[in-house]
């Protein structure tokens, strides 16, 4: 004969959720008005140096045509007097060394994103290109944990979204993120190249536990010998 055993049980399933997270002032809304250059409050730019030395601004507030909100950021490659080459418009979460064209440091950051994204327009000259780059750095080890990048040499006159997947080289969590936006190729910048950016974000995968109640039926077979 058969014995039917009916009982209720809870099944725990792993659930993966895609989360879109925001970067501090990702829409480039917060500016301090100044002369000769207004500047972003929560990002670092080269304006403090180029404005002081030459009265020229490579980073400006875009209010006529932002992707959303009240403003975006416009980067322009400029030539300042006594410079060996044009200087790209640059915005970063790190610290810019304009003289040596390097960036160091970044903002505190411990996530492991799957990708970064944002909106852009571009008007590069000749063979120039504009770019987005993100470095996830562990300051305790000095290692770069992961990188993401987007580069284009196309002229794009309407807001277009880019997505830059993160490639990881270490299982460690980062301690800082260094994001860098450029209007030109660092190795061969061309004066007059322009890029605009707005609404940056990143995506992470969150793995959790989902509790599902289910009624299970177990059928047990019992062999009864013939008499």
Structural account:
By secondary structure, this protein is mainly beta. Helix content is 4%, strand content 54%. It has one helix and 17 strands. It has one helix spanning 47-54; strands at residues 2-22, 31-32, 39-40, 44-45, 59-62, 72-76, 90-92, 95-97, 102-104, 107-108, 115-123, 130-138, 143-152, 156-165, 167-168, 176-182, 194-221. Strands 4, 7, 10, 12, 13, 15 and 16 form a seven-stranded antiparallel beta sheet that branches. A hairpin with a 4-residue loop joins strand 8 and strand 9 (102-104). It is globular and about 45 Å long. The model is unreliable at 1-16 and 208-227 (pLDDT under 50).
Count of runs of 4 or more consecutive helical residues: 1
Biggest sheet overview: 7 strands, antiparallel
**Assembly context of the chains:** single chain
The class by helix and strand makeup works out as mainly beta
Parts with pLDDT < 50 across at least 5 consecutive residues: 1-16, 208-227
Distance between the termini: 14 Å
Q: Helix coverage percent of residues?
A: under 10%
Quick one: how many beta strands? 17
Proportion of residues in β-strands: over 45%
Question: What keyword list fits this structure?
Answer:
disordered C terminus; 227 residues; mainly beta; single chain
Topology at a glance:
Elements: E1 2-22, E2 31-32, E3 39-40, E4 44-45, H1 47-54, E5 59-62, E6 72-76, E7 90-92, E8 95-97, E9 102-104, E10 107-108, E11 115-123, E12 130-138, E13 143-152, E14 156-165, E15 167-168, E16 176-182, E17 194-221
Antiparallel strand pairs: 1-17, 2-3, 4-7, 5-6, 6-17, 7-16, 8-9, 10-16, 11-14, 11-17, 12-13, 12-16, 13-15
């Amino acid at each position: 004969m058969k014995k039917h055993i009916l009982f209720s049980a809870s099944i725990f399933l792993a659930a993966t959720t895609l989360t879109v997270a925001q970067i501090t002032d990702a829409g480039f809304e917060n500016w301090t008005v100044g002369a000769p250059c207004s500047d972003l409050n929560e990002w670092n730019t080269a304006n403090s140096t180029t404005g002081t030395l030459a009265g020229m601004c490579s980073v400006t507030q875009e209010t006529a045509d932002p992707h959303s909100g009240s403003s975006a950021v416009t980067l322009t490659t400029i030539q300042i007097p006594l410079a060996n080459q044009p200087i790209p418009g640059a915005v970063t979460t790190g610290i810019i060394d304009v003289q040596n064209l390097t960036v160091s440091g970044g903002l505190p950051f411990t996530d492991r994103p799957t990708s970064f994204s944002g909106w852009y327009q571009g008007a590069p000259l000749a063979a120039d290109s504009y770019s987005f780059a993100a470095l996830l750095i562990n300051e305790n080890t000095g290692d770069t944990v992961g990188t993401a990048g987007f580069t284009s040499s196309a002229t794009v006159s309407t807001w277009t979204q880019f997505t830059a997947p993160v490639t990881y080289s270490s299982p460690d969590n980062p301690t800082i993120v260094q994001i860098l936006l450029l209007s030109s190729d660092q190795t061969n910048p061309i004066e007059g190249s322009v890029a605009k950016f707005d609404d940056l974000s990143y995506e992470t995968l969150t793995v959790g536990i989902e509790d599902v109640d289910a009624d299970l039926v177990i059928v047990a077979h019992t062999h009864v010998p013939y008499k």
